[in-house]
Write a structure and sequence with these properties.
By secondary structure, the chain is mostly helical. The protein folds into two domains: 18-90, Dioxygenase LigAB, LigA subunit (Protocatechuate 4,5-dioxygenase, Chain A, Orthogonal Bundle), CATH 1.10.700.10; 92-128, no CATH class. It is built from eight helices and no strands.
């Protein structure tokens, strides 16, 4: 049986494999709790107290309170779940992505429309990645 590829050598890549998923399970369950209005109200009333309902690590707790989007992913968060916190704050996916890249929302949108970033984190320029390139 072959081992899945290791992506740890790609900067900024946090693969949600079994180990990473286990690490972030409680964090992701907290995020999912924000689907319910009663939980959003309780979180809005006292974020730190609400987080006590979940056995998060101190680092996860700080990442939530600080809205450290990239830190949440590093600590086992699934981007689809952690986006629930951004939605709670009325922050767009593009603004969240920009914050992870030290860009404004508009800068992030522009980079995505012009081809994204290379493996070194530099904006990649060129044809829109959403267009067919003939291949």
């Amino acid at each position: 049986m072959s081992k899945a590829p290791d992506f740890s050598d790609i900067p900024g890549t946090y693969v949600l494999d079994k180990e990473h998923s286990r690490k972030g399970y409680q964090l992701n369950m907290f995020c999912m709790s924000l689907n319910e209005q009663v939980n959003r109200d309780a979180f809005r009333e006292d974020e730190a107290a609400y987080l006590e309902r979940y056995p998060l690590t101190p680092e996860q707790r700080h990442a939530v309170l600080d809205r450290d989007w990239l830190g949440l992913l590093k600590l086992g968060g699934n981007v689809y779940y952690t986006f629930k916190i951004a939605a709670f704050d009325r922050i767009s996916m593009q603004a969240m992505g920009g914050a992870m890249c030290d860009m404004t929302e508009d800068e992030f949108k522009e980079v995505m429309l012009t081809g994204g970033k290379d493996a070194h984190g530099h904006p990649r320029r060129g044809p829109n990645v959403l267009e067919k390139d003939g291949g």
